[in-house]
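User: I'm putting together notes for a lab meeting next week and I want to include a structural view of one of the chains we've been expressing. I don't have a solved structure, so I'd like a prediction I can at least talk through. The sequence is below, exactly as it appears in our construct file.
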Amino acid sequence: MKNKGWLRCIAFTLLLTFSVLGICQCYGLPRTYDTRNIAAFDSEEENLVDGIILGTSVVSYAWLTPVAWNNYGLPIYHLGTSVQPFGVITDYLDYIDKSQDVKYVIIDIHGLRTEAIFASLAPAKFRTAYLNIPDFASRVKILNSLYKYVEDVYAFYGKPEDAIDIVDVNDTSYLFPFLNFHSRWVDGLKKADFVTVKNIYMGADDRDNAFKVKNCSKYTSVWNFGEVKDIDDFQKAQLQRIFDYAEEKDLKLLFINMPSFRTKAEQEEMRNIIEYCKNQGYNTIDFANMEMIKELDIKLNHDFINRGHLNSAGGVKATNYICEYLIENDYYSVDHRGDPAYSHWDATYEEYDKFYKDGWSQESTMFQYDD
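Assistant: Thanks for the context. Below is the predicted structure for the 371-residue chain, given as structure tokens.
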């Protein structure tokens, strides 16, 4: 009789544990495009990825991993996120280093403009930037780094005026998403909340956004810059951390500025950042000028989703250009096509190619819009 009592106790404990874990899973961080990319990367076999590309949503939309693979045999994974916090890139690379022997890193500098620094630390973004990383130790490390980044930003620039935009670095609920998202059932749960739904295209945009079109011809005046100016000390410090990290880890860097049409002041700030990287001896590609638009044959009336992002048609052109740059400038550009270990990359390209062709075959006024 006593044994049966112990068995009931054990069974109840196990049932309660699995129930709590299930609830936390369902009501944890929303499964967004960004977090699905991380899940896909985490399931990748070890030491197959040679390069990583990081940055904000400009990278999320424009970098097409399957295209880089099919056209050049380069296994370069996209792990950018919406308004990616620039100050924790080195910690993110430590997480990546646990499973992949990365040789080079491509970093878009949009996240280092002043407006983006604060946008990346808005509490809603802060909660979803990296905290779905499956590796708990990496998650804790990155969260602590985010706290430090918050303090550094506030110390240099000051805190946001609105209290709702201020991150509380003592709020441990960021590490336990259930505490922040327990009421998500009100909005309705989806399949992705119960099972892990990966981005099946290795980070390439798998949403309808990939085929939206915005005519951006009238916005090119924001690229009429004045003289190059120095960037501020905070921006320099964030870049220096990456410079030092790359030297220590023997990583080759490439800094890029994806084409976008933000305010003239923001565009000029990004031009100054990319020029600073160049002056420090690092390779750079600045796409935000008419010379590069013409060289890539980017169509201003077709290849953008909106003022801030390329669509998949523009993404093909930017991806091809970056791959050719890597090859021509002696990055670790080994062509792995034909290697049996990468057979799933071939399958991914076939799936993405169908998705791409099907999407653009439906092109009509439904994809034309004004923002």
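A couple of points you could mention at the meeting. Confidence is low (pLDDT under 50) at residues 181-186, 364-371. The radius of gyration is 22 Å.

User: Perfect, that's what I needed.
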